[in-house]
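To whoever is covering the structure queue this week,

Two jobs came back overnight. Logging them here so there's a record in the thread.

Job A:
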Amino acid sequence: MKKLNKKEYIAPWEKAFDLILSPLEEFIHRQTTSGVLLMICAIVALAIANSPWNEAYHHILELTFTIGVEGFQLSKSLHHWINDGLMALFFFVVGLELKREILVGELADPKQAILPIVAAIGGMLVPVIIYVSFNPEGHALNGWGVPMATDIAFALGALALLGSRVPKNLLTFLVALAIVDDLGAVLVIALFYTEAINFIALTVAILLLFLLIALNLGGIRRPLPYMMIGVMLWIAMLQSGVHATLAGIILAFTIPMRPKYDADRFLSHINDMVVLIKRAYQHENNIVKNVELRSRVQALEEGVHLVQAPAQILEHKMHLPTAYIVIPIFSLANAGIPIDISSFDAIVTNPVSMGIAAGLVFGKLIGIAGFSWLAIKLGLTVLPHGLNFKHIVGVALMGGIGFTMSIFIAELGFVHHPQDLLMAKTGILFASVLAGVSGFIWLYLTAEKNKEYSLDYKL
């Protein structure tokens, strides 16, 4: 190693890596990155599905992978492992976000929560009504839950591109709305997109849930016991017939949200540790040789963890791999839609694709903006400071970006009807592009640029 001074050392390549990593870390931490990455993966999947590699693409997705030991094995296609397994991690992060928002976030204060809750309810109900009007009966009715969902990564990414034209409160409103929207989608999946129930496996899942609650009440704060039981819960849910990804939500709600130390106790602990570290340092300033100094530093690290809520730590750690690995893989596996220009007329007249497209574009606009307007007129709530109704209309348009959750529900609703699934995905992609572009244009033309506004948000 190259010596810089008595207190700092820099490895030979460290400066060069800093020059590379610093901008990359800043780029990754921006919310827009997730939306951009999703868009790239969707385009790649579409390109593959409409190329000579289409057959190989679907063949790879249908490859069977088996885990476990003889007598207790799980065999699923790669497609199912992605949708049932990896997406459980996505729902785990969604659950942590839901719990935080409900306990200490935008949904914790009833006065602040009313507007996004009402807007989200409208944004779920009206698209369903529109879809059902296109598909009142038959197996096509199974797709009624598809246009309910909003993809927060895409929506926030589109909103962030407007920069100083939109106020921070608008992003806060969209986040709160999307969180309620996610909760609605989770409930719909749990209640209406469940296969035949295996009551023995469901009983095991319930017992595991009680065990997780006991860990919480018993003050267990290490994540490992929760993760181990969470894996067993996922297996039990998979065998029960209730969609396995919901295990992620259930697990998230059992993770402790309160830290072990409050701020006062933490400050007292830090002060005591600093005194002990200084005393140990006087005997030997090399931490590699000084066992006491090393133990004091480790105790300090332990205190830093105990002043943070376990759920908060896990949400921070899991957000990046979920946003930049799990969701892009899901996009690659599910957005590969063969597009036949010659059958365009059939697509635009198909009740499934049209019901979903109309539900996402017009249903979200009418539901979010209409219910918001009604709640304000009835005196139930008021617009947040700095927002006007043009802002709400812009968010209502962007709420029609359904992508991730909409495709996920479509996979559940049309699992036995591949042609309807194809039409559903086509409608989702068409509506998401139209909603995102129209929402961007609307806000760009109606929102005035203001230096006080900044969308320099990080994950």
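Job B:
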Amino acid sequence: MRIEERIDLMAKLGAHLLEDKDEFLKALMSRTEFNNQWFTIENQNLAIKAIAEQFLQKEKLQQWVQNYPGIEPKTPQRIGLVLAGNIPMVGFHDVLSVFMAGHQARVKLSSKDAFIMPYLFKTLGEWDERSIPYFKAQQKLEGFDAVIATGSNNSSRYFEAYFGKYPHIIRKNRNAVAVLTGEEDAAELHNLGKDIFRYFGLGCRNVAKLYVPEGYDFDPLLTALHEYRTIVMHSKYKNNFDYNYAMFILNKEPFKANGCILLREDPETTSRIANLNYEYYETLEGVPAMLAARAEQIQCVVAKDGALPTSTLPFGSAQSPGLMDYADGVDTLAFLSGLAD
């Protein structure tokens, strides 16, 4: 298939997903939620809508691939993909990148999200049988020429050992952070809640840590985040909230709470479920250096427009990445386009 045909096929998938009329897909979403209670129907719909709107629009796809001249390979490579399972459909960008680069995806799905992706592969094959060789789900990853693997800091060590001899991208654990100045209004703090709570905070683009000025007044933030209090109606989230709350009390750790999120002072960028770390800064001018010191642990930075001289995202947009928002800042399509024919 030529690149134009691949774009048209993916644009057709985007339109199909936005129609929201695929009853079999809805049944698979129910099966996924039964298999993994973190993947609620609501969160699956959010993920699918974001993919359709941000990734699968023809104009966006065309603009994306224009940045990679000579993207058509002379000989398609087989790309092994080890997909994460922290949030619904999290590996779709890798699958899409492989297809746009003209290679063949050999996909090791996460057991936490094993039903929808194969159905989409089957649907694409029914629409255009030429696409069938481009997508293959495998129980055991084998027969590949290059690898893109996503996992935790622990699993990345195994990935390095298994796949180190192949051309590869291996991703570790990262999180988003937010930089607050104290000048944010109620709407901005409410939007920050989307970056914190969406997908229960399990995504690498979820805000897990705040940088706040010394003397910061947490009350407006806690009030704004309390608007998301219904999240504690989810049993697994509530169990984590209750456990962390109890441990903080038993260990006599100081913390702040509003009924749906726990805040404690901690320099780590990764926080527990239902918990949000924060760290004080002396001056806003010193924050870029603080961020640079943890650059390998930070996926993206959310802040008020103009607050920092470095690149930031608006409040509420962390979980709506575009095609050029590559995980860990590694250009996946450049890697795939550069593989030897």
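Note for Job B: DSSP finds twelve helices and eleven strands in the chain.

Please reply-all if you pick these up so we don't duplicate work.
Q.
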